[in-house]
Amino acid sequence: MIRVMGGITPYRAQSADMLMNIVPALPVIAGTCIFMIVALGFIHHWNGINLLIPMFLQSALLMTIAYAIACITCVFIMRPHIKDIASRSLPYAKMHCGNGILCASTVALAMISFAIGMGAIAQYDLTIANLEAWKPLSRVVSADVSASTTDAFTEENASRIHASFKELDDDEAMALSMPVGVFFTPSQGEQPTIEQVHAATSPYDDVIICNPAFLSMFNVHGSELRSIDSRDIPSSLSEGIHAYNDLWLTSGASPMEQHLFRWNSSRAFPSLSYGAQTGTITHTTNPLIIVVNDISTSLNLEGFLIPAMSTANLVFANADVLHQAFGRHGVNSLITSTSTIADSVYARTLWLRQTIATCAIAMTVAIIAALLVAAFAARTWSLERQRALFVRHVSGYTFTALTCKRTIVCGLLLIAVTALASFVLPNWSIVDPTRSETLFFLLFAAVGAAFNTLITIHAARSSFREAIHRH
């Protein structure tokens, strides 16, 4: 306003303000990018650092453009008006609105980063456990075949694939593990939840179809399985299993109800997850297990084996054995891709590690920004009410009493935001809501409210001192 009153046009004043805000931010943006390059390079042992530098240069350019747009927007909103100059006042209403938007944005960014980061951490722990399980099975592969399409699934190809599977099954080079409890739940077009699967397969946690090769692969001994009769399970579950015999089994194969086993071990039963990432292993403490001895002759090719292969629930000892078996029967060209499961799980651990690091950096920056914005908002509030604060404090009111209304309102708003976030944001994380996320939201609200109280009291005290010294 002083520059405008001195004869400088508002547009020149706005341009000077933009440059004054943008130029000091450039070293900060560059330093942030360098720090992230060094941090990620250290995490990945400097592998692929030549790929990180162009990525972060692009990120730096985008950050600069975004910051410039933000500065232009703020300067445009805060541009001086004749009425402000005439009344010798600052546009406090606009400043409060801007502070509120910035506070909400930074708090939301911090919570989103934490929700995603916590999900990544939980998924990372699970993936590390999966990686340890697959280390002794480093050559096991999953595969995709084009026979899953109508054009490629001819009668001739089907018989050749069946012969290839028969050869692999005889050599115990083909392992099957398929949780099928999801098929016993009422279908609503969405993936059933764990609770729905448990309810449909009660008193068991899940129903798992596997073969002896899979049991041998994961060191499951015969003494850990106890054969049971179909009359020993609930009639609804027995009828559900029986209903899939025509779809999943070949004609002449013995019904699945004749191959039921109960898990009889203190450890959890390992199985490949259905519909999850390749190589994900779930551990079930009370499964109903269906052991099919000759899966190549007992299970339907189109109705079970090919779908199980496409979801990586049917795996093979190694890629060479798979290609040789399919090659001997002239259908090797139908194999579109093979993937070493251990490598897939390891690649997922690297991605999750990078996600955790990125979320940690984003959350730290967002929290710092939120605290700075809160401090600026408290300072703005105290300056706007400087005269009232001076008069009331001289009259005997303490700074705590003078600021209690603002701190209570801000605290209630923060609690409301965190309560809403505790219900909404965990749905954006990689895993289900955890107790850690809820505790973080409560801690975030408590620390935020305490910081806002202290910084508001400090701002009121500073404003009072400035009024005394006529600053």
UniProtKB/TrEMBL annotation:
Entry keyword Transmembrane: yes
Lineage: superkingdom: Bacteria
Keywords, alphabetical: Membrane, Transmembrane, Transmembrane helix
Spans through the membrane: 21-43, 55-78, 99-122, 355-378, 408-428, 440-460
Keyword Lipoprotein: no
Protein name, as recorded: Lantibiotic ABC transporter permease
Lineage of the species this protein comes from: Bacteria, Bacillati, Actinomycetota, Actinomycetes, Bifidobacteriales
